[in-house]
Fold each of these.
Amino acid sequence: MKRNILFIFTLALILVALENCKHEPKTTIVKTTTTEADSAYIGTKYVIGSNALTFEFPGITNPYKDSLTVEGIQLGRMLFYDKHLSVNGQMACASCHILSHSFADTIPIATNVFGPNKRKAPRLVNLAWEPYMFWDGRQPTIAAQAQDASHNELGMVATNAVAYLQADTVYAKLFKKAFGKAGATVNVNQIYLGIQEFLMTAISINSRFDSVMRGQATFTQDETAAFYAIFIQTTGECFHCHSFGGNYLMANYLPGQTFRNDGLQAATTINDYADAGRGAITGVPSDYGLFKNPSLRNVAVSGPYMHDGRYKTLDQVINFYSDSLKYSPNMDQFIALHIPRDSSGNYLPVGGLHLTTTAKAQLLTLLNDMTDTSYLNNPAFKDPF
Ligand code: HEC
Ligand code: HEC
């Protein structure tokens, strides 16, 4: 009897154990599924930063700098090249922003889905450090700019774009990874944030100029003359606007110094500027005819030049600074230094730095030194489709 009880008890134990065994794989499966579902919302953190960056560039101004993910960057890259976002399915950001030209356009004024633009599509480089977007700085962040361009260049219809992206399994997965639970259903703002993530990684820091600044290479005599005797001297005045103390972005974005008039447009009164630039945004009289100092990185591959693409070559740009700086009411103080006055003290209409042929050639060499071929050929920036 006792034996029987023991037997039944043991059997019961075994049955319970077996039962548990049966359940165990189930439990495990349930667990795995939960983990997978959660992991679908967790992207891989991506950190922008290297010693070279800390040395050459000041802190990133973009507020999203700490929330980048590998998936968000991939998402942005796809969106940047995807023509489906446009109203006619024929235009993408990349139609006007071409990688081999440092994401600049190759023509003065491109036509968007609504008609001709007003200005030249500029280089996109080191945007994470730029406090203003557009030649007139009318947008504050890359995301705000991407929103502006999605509508005003691509004619994107938000509901159509969202429906297309949500229905695409690759996109849907990337949105989840990039934006966590908030990315489960795509919303239109995430399109702009994704593009912003991609463009924040478009960093150029490997030009010959950088190598020299990092002490890994040395300037030739001509380059030394160009940088130390022209670019950062009153001979050229370039550094006031295209660089500033200890900063190698090759642009001046300091508060109050970002928008300047470099003597490009002749004007007698502020209403004569063909393009009012910053003035049209702020309405402040002293802002008329001012434009954002463009970074000179990759400048050699991204002509035509100036906000209206008026100069085809860098030679022409250098000749402009040398021989045809124009008087206008809002010309920069450093431009004014190079515009002569008549005997009554009135400015003449045209002036210039009056560079020698040698100086011009040296300056051109320095501008060529800003070209970063590793940027222009970076596989991570190429068309993913
Ligand atoms: C039809 C041509 C065209 C298309 C398409 C286009 N852009 Fe642009 N982009 C321009 C032009 C022109 C400017 C300068 C306009 C101005 O300053 O007024 C510009 C300026 C910019 C800037 C400012 C850069 C700076 O340093 O100030 C960014 C960033 C930019 N575009 C990103 C985008 C993105 C993202 C898209 C896609 C959503 C896009 N662009 C689509 C023509 C285009
Ligand atoms: C007072 C400020 C200022 C000075 C000084 C200055 N620049 Fe500029 N530069 C600008 C601004 C602003 C623009 C854009 C103007 C526009 O498009 O209306 C510009 C445009 C350029 C461009 C064309 C960039 C492009 O993407 O189209 C080049 C190249 C350039 N400058 C080189 C130089 C060189 C070299 C010097 C020195 C010889 C110099 N600049 C001096 C402010 C300045």
Amino acid sequence: MTERTALYSPESLLALDGIDELERMKAVVNPFWNRARLDVTWSLPVMAGMTESSKISLQQMREATKEELLTFHDPSFVETLDLFGNTGSAFSARFGLDTDDCPVFPGVHRYARLPVGGVIDATIGVAKGKFKNAMSFVGGFHHAMESQAAGFCYLNDTVVAIKKYKEVNPGKKVLYLDTDVHHGDGTQKAFYADPDVLTISLHEKSMGFFPGTGKPEEMGIGEGKGYSVNVPLPPLTDDVEYWRAFEDAIVPIWQVYKPDLVFWNVGADAHFGDPLADLMLTFDTYHRLTMTVRQLVHEGERKLVAVGGGGYNPVTTAKVWTIVLAGLADMALPPVLPNKWLVLIEKYGLKMGRDGWTDRPSRMDEKHYPKVKRAVDDAINKVKELIFPVFGLE
Ligand SMILES: [Zn+2]
């Protein structure tokens, strides 16, 4: 039994040049698939020297095989994605490809397959006790469906990894926690009828906000009824209200369910600095989530895999993921941000904002507070009403 945290390096993605080609082809930079995001997020722990620690086992991603992808994905979807990768351009709206969110570019199939291979290896490695726990910054493509790319997601690494885990460990229970600010629709759908994979998603829900699903009433079907949990949160939800929802609606279910493996899609896009969403979390909540997830995991089989998910302000995303990594690996954060990293973000024209690892605490505007509190109350009460009875909770 090793005490090391496996960390999956995106260096193989950074070595490809398809996203550079994409940036040349399109007038607007894709918020997910761009070099600044990949480079800035990964470079923070590297330049801080964290990846050289004996507490980290640095791992390389590999491309998932076709056989692995077919445990979930439709063969014609996988083949179409391969073809796009080889030709660099084509058209197939049928599969959600060649859109603003899921553009095609040279080698797109490799960009899509590498994180899947990494996350499968992370999951199997943790399950076998090869690693204490594991994290891949690039992963958590929760909008990808069986035969549909959507919301920057081509292939659903999480679903494939959980399916592979279940192949090797029949009868084991998985808890999938999704704190990305968007509803984890693709992952929820894949396990909608499966009571052995409990999916829990806390997300923003507001008019026109992607993907539009994620009401508490979406609670699973058949034997899986009660095993899809959704906590929709209003815009401007802050640390206090978020934490209330997590402790009141999620923790009791988790403790009764007693999962064998926990999969966490972190998502740095619930931070207030994210340009695509409207929640108001600070770094403190990500730290608290990390500590609480670890505590809950340690009440059970101690098997945890974390993936980065979304996050579209590369500077805050880098800090969130590094905070989570430090928590998982029991490492101290460096007292100051590495100078080399500050030079790097400047090179990409990004703004630093507040220095260090904390945000300035702020109170919610009194004008908005009653409305936000009411909406969070509604979400918590709905989960208690619909889901708690399934777990014998009151
Ligand atoms: Zn997201």
